[in-house]
Amino acid sequence: MNMKLETLAVHAGAEPDPETGAVAPPIHLSTTFRHGPAAERVAGYEYQREGNPTQDRLEAALAALEGGAAALAYASGMAAISGLLEALPPGARVLLPDDCYSGTRYLANEFLPQRDVSAAFVDMSDLAAVEAACAVPATLLWVETPSNPLMKISDIAGLARIARERDALLCCDNTFATPVLQQPLALGADVVMHSTTKYFGGHSDVLGGALVFARRDVLFEAVAHRRHITGGVLSPFSAWLTLRGCRSLPARMAMHCANARALAEFLAAHPAVARVNWPGLPTHPGHDIARAQMRDYGAMLSLQVRGGREAALKVAGKLELFTNATSLGGCESLVEHRASTEGPHPVSPQDLLRVSVGLEHADDLIADWARALA
Ligand SMILES: *Cc1c(COP(=O)(O)O)cnc(C)c1O
Stretch 198-220: mean pLDDT, rounded? Predict the structure, then answer.
C-alpha cells in the first residue's frame, strides 16, 4: 500500500508481536540468541551488537520515513557521522559546510586526517563555491540544511547534481528538518544522517543517531560491517524510545512549525530585535529554496538582539518558559546563547540567541518573549 507519511510514522515497524499479539512492540534486552550446535541461526539473530529485534523495528521505520532502502541505528548522532566518514577509504576527500555542527567539524579536523582522509569547508548554500571546491576531486559532499545557527538553506537537488556529475556521494544531515519536512533521498542524496536525539526522540530523554541509505549497496554493507565491529550500536531500550517518538513525529512537527511561525513573526516585528533567522520568513535569503524543497520551515530559529552580547544575555536570563539549555527538538522550548557554548573561538554572532520552539501554546511563548524583551 502506498501510504502517506503520517500513516507510515504510526505503522512502520509496528507489526503486533507475533508471539503474544502485543500491539506495543516488545523490548528485547537479550544480548545473545540461541543457535544450533554448528551456530545455525534459529530466528535470524546471534548477538545484540550485530543486530536485534527492537533495533530492526526502528531501522525499518527510519528507512520507510526517509524513503530509503535500509537504515542503521547508532548510539548517538556523532556515532552515526563517524560510522560513515570513518568508513571512507584512505585518500578520500570530504567537503563539509563552513557552518556545520561543531562535532562534525571536530571529527573532520582531529580524526579524519589520522586516517588520511582530508576535509575542506565550503559554503554549501553557494553552488558555485561548491563546484569550485570540487576542482580537487571530492569523495563525499556533506550538507546540513537548515544549518546552525543562521538557518542557512542549501539546495539539496543542486548539490546532488554536482555530486553525481563527479562520482561523489551526497550525505544530508536532516536532523533539523526531519523527513516530515524534507526528504533528501528523493532530492538525489545518497545517505541521510540523523541525530535522533532531537525530533525523533522528541522528549529530550534518549540519545541516538541513524544513517539511512538510498541503496542497499557496497557502501551500506561496509558501513553496517563497521558498526558491527566497532560497536557503536543503539541500546534496545533507546531504540524502543526512539521508535515510540516516530509515531507522533508528524503530529509534533506540525505544531512545532506553527508555533515557530507565530514566534518568528512576533520577533521579526519587535523593535528590540535586529534580525530573525527563520527560513519561513520571506526576507530570509534561503526562503525560495526552502519553499521548494521543504513542506514547512521547521521550529529552529535564531534572533539577533539589538544591543549586542550583554542585551542578548539579559533577555536569555529573563525568559521563563524557555530554558537556557543546549540541544533541540523536545516538547519544551529552549534558548541558547550559542557563542557562550562554542569554546575559546566562537563563530556565532555575540548578539545571537538560538531557539528551539516547543509544543507549549504559542500565545504563552510569545508572552514570555514580550516580557523578556520589554
Ligand atoms: C545534535 C546534532 C548532531 C550530533 O548528534 P548527537 O546525538 O548529539 O551525537 C549532529 N548534527 C546536528 C545537526 C545536531 O543537531
Answer: 98
